[in-house]
Design goal:
75 residues; alpha+beta; three-stranded antiparallel sheet
Amino acid sequence: MSIPRKQARRAALLDHLARTLFAQDRDYAEQAVNDALSTVHEDHAALRRHLVEGGFLVRTRDGSSYRRATGGPTG
């Protein structure tokens, strides 16, 4: 699988990944996020960055914890 370049297709993919890989109201360590994303693409860092920048995942200020966004694209 490749990461779509077109914004609309990328947003649809990121929404799907956020909904299927990450439960609502649960915190994930960075390694857990990486492990989950590695199951769908080798560049888990790029996917993680797109998920955060797109508002699908929220990252703590220190980057140690992630959570599926509420009230945003997947909310």
